[in-house]
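Ticket 4471: requesting a sanity check on a complex prediction with fructose -6-phosphate. Repro inputs:
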Amino acid sequence: MEVIIQKTTEMATKLTAEVIADQLRKQPNLVLGLATGRTMERLYAELVSDHKENGLDFSLCETFNLDEYVGLPPENIYSYRYYMNDHLFSKINIDLRNTHLPDGMAEDLELSAENYEKLITEAGGIDLQLLGIGSSGHIGFNEPLSALQSRTREKALTPATIAQNSPLFDKPENMPRHAMTMGVGTILDAKRIIMLVTGKEKAEILSKAVEGPVTGMISASALQLHPKCTVIVDEDAASLLKEKDYYKWIFENDPGWTKFERR
Ligand code: F6R
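Returned structure tokens:
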């Protein structure tokens, strides 16, 4: 794992967008794993600008989202399909047929979860998976006690996640209590992972995920097992990390990062 600390939220977001864009330019048929949430809104705005200003091309890109609420159809403004169309897909040149989310409306959720896994495999696996972290420590909707080898399935959302996301709904009680999510194992199969974490409210859970033990109680801690995982954070989110100076030293000295603007 590498941890990159940027001074501001904007800088952390921009760097994340640059890494994604760089990989997409190198590999136009990139299979990209996507996340939703407040953190990602800024990131998608950056990718949209890159598309509009520099022609960043998504025409051959295929995407797989981490999760979707159970019971919300795509046209529901709180569904993740709606979020993705609204923040990204409708603003870039992606073929909507190449964009996939788990189906929270499937009659047989178990079967549709299996099919989602198959679809990812048929696409050749995820090249680059983008992640955020929830206040429960989740990645995707892998709530505490998720098996580190779990695959796509239905999960009950925990009180911490309901507290985090229900204010986004018109009536908090309308937030679904279940979601379909890629498993921790599915996520760890991605060839490369980038987790973007911003804001003071994420500092404590981030420090546990990065510097604490690997535990099913904090699914993001499983990222320590991944051979190519980069965590990009702003100073606020990094505020409780003990080894900040070490992470900064690595970033400044690692030849892999020389082409990116140092901030
Ligand atoms: C959503 C997802 C979640 C979010 C996390 C952080 O698709 O995968 O794990 O990344 O809940 O959400 P925000 O950015 O709203 O704090």
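Notes from triage: The pocket of fructose -6-phosphate is lined by residues 35-39, 66-67, 132-134, 138-140 (CB under 6 Å). Leaving this open until the requester confirms.
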